[in-house]
What does this fold into?
Amino acid sequence: IYNGIDVERFKKRDPAVLRKLKEEFALKEGAVVGIIARLSDIKGHVYLLEAIKKVTESIPEVQLIIAGDGNMKRRLVTLCRELKIEGKVHFIPSVRDTAGVLSLLDVFVMPSLKEGLGLALMEAMASGLAVVGSRVGGIENLISHGENGLLVPAAESGALAQAILELLLNKEKRLKFANAASLFISKNFSAEKMCLETERLYLECQNA
It folds into this structure.
């Protein structure tokens, strides 16, 4: 039985809250890409930063939100300086209201080298976001390439950059994937479904 999430919570977007968050995080006008994950090498942040550097060559105004804490923070900040993208990257400590952060994004990226099911990815899809993920672990259970998102090989910043660009430059495709992602999560990974399946399992055990 897979973990389920409160799908409805991620569908609500308050314009007033959105404006406040944009001011709080000092976001400018332009496309926003993001990730919510602990700052660990296994999550692939390094490849995302390298990809964003490539994306800026076509979309100079792109911005990246990295939400989460971890022991890689200093290394990632240093890499931003080396890539000369520090002004485009916003580091946000771990947040309780992931729905609020997700509402700021145009594209969610999970470039993990290894991954279980990927709760943050599920929440992003429930929020109606176009998503890009590595072709590893549980991510492949959530993203159907070309249907509700894009899959790329792990640890390949070039392929990651191309996928991000594909979504940012094609609004029709981005919205198509976003809608499909939201429907997929609602149908397969809602908290209601998790509870029903858990109840069914208990009943089966009682009757065995």
